[in-house]
């Protein structure tokens, strides 16, 4: 294994970033001990963590009355009945394009936020960031802040070290278990599966996925931490294509900070920068980098270094904002001793993303508002493609699937046209001839009927039209199917 090699980089008189320390590709990971930061961004992160975790753990327990016989869980991916419920929205397999639309909206939303605020998703809301933050909080509770944790790890194994490590890993595992357990609640009725879990009656898949999520949470948030962001996640690479020089990023102000160096109280601020090389921005960094080395792939833009530096600036009586959200154009302007341009929200890419999000959003709302509540699907028998009856007529068999998406049973009138002289029968129902037939369909369900269509022998290869109509509302759906006969 190679060792990390640190370059001694010049800090005096620099107008731009000093290069980051060179690291061998296969360098052994150095354990990072992030120090607790205090400030407005840390507070925002606590709030985001509480809200996102609260939503994740509690949402499956929220009930939503949809009528008798329909799941009353507000958010549920019901694989058994092949439906997805999200409060008042109900996605059937036939509406899968809405899920695709939601995914596209989420991706475009992420693109928009990235082009405006850089990697704000990574720094605040990504599950890896949120759970790692939670795990570090637990670690701090048992082992203390950065210096205490470093001392503990360097020290020999004692009872004190053992119980602290044991306590930390126990709580980590409990959190991991709750995380895995909460995941399965999203695709089962939460109270039932939670009860069944402890009595051994939950489905095997529930145990399997809960176990998998428990292990991944424990290892990714507890052990892997920043390595997931740096080495495993594709987002840092993708986001480079989504931002431009006008996006806001956590940035060190070289023009203000350099030349840096420790400072005595008696020394003047003339001829030197505001950075006193206190290392606080590095110590709070959860990925262990030095923002003063410029924009780096590892930086998740959590802004904790802003808090650390602002605290230090306040302490030494200098203006805050030595590390701040800034754009690349502003940084370049300052380096050239020019006035930095104002931050521009309206840029071609932000306008494009906004227009796309609005257009897809409007389309989806319109689609949901006008979503059909009945649907008919026809599947023709493949084998045999047709049979010749004793009277010489040709008969084809079909399966008609009638979908009723409302919570009341309905009667649907089915009529079949397209071939002169055709007649049809529905197995299990009294019907002969070509007159429409009324078929009952259960509430919020799918009923299947076998239909046999006969036509005179000379009909050949034709198409039949099957129209399904709700006798009360008049809502209709039409399907076409092929009719086969001898050539
Ligand atoms: S450099 Fe600053 S913003 Fe980037 S990850 Fe470290 S603390 Fe967060
Ligand atoms: S916290 Fe601020 S003053 Fe301290 S080293 Fe970082 S940039 Fe310099």
Descriptive overview:
With 487 residues, this protein is an alpha+beta fold. It folds into 2 domains: 29-371, no CATH class; 374-483, Immunoglobulin-like (Sandwich), CATH 2.60.40.10. It has helices spanning 40-58, 96-117, 120-125, 127-143, 146-154, 159-185, 190-199, 204-224, 226-232, 235-239, 254-257, 280-283, 304-316, 328-335, 348-369; strands spanning 75-78, 83-86, 89-91, 249-252, 323-326, 374-380, 387-388, 394-404, 410-417, 423-426, 437-441, 445-455, 462-470, 476-483. Strands 6, 7, 8, 10 and 12 form a 5-stranded antiparallel sheet that branches. Helix 1 (40-58) crosses helix 4, helix 2 packs antiparallel against helix 15 and helix 6 packs across helix 8 (204-224). The radius of gyration is 32 Å and the shape is elongated. The chain binds iron/sulfur cluster (2 copies). One iron/sulfur cluster binds at residues 257, 275-281, 292, 308-309, 312, 322-323.
Individual helix count: 15
How would you classify the helix and strand content by structural class? alpha+beta
- In the predicted model, the low-confidence regions spanning at least 5 consecutive residues are 1-14
Number of domains: 2
Estimated share of beta-strand residues: 15-25%
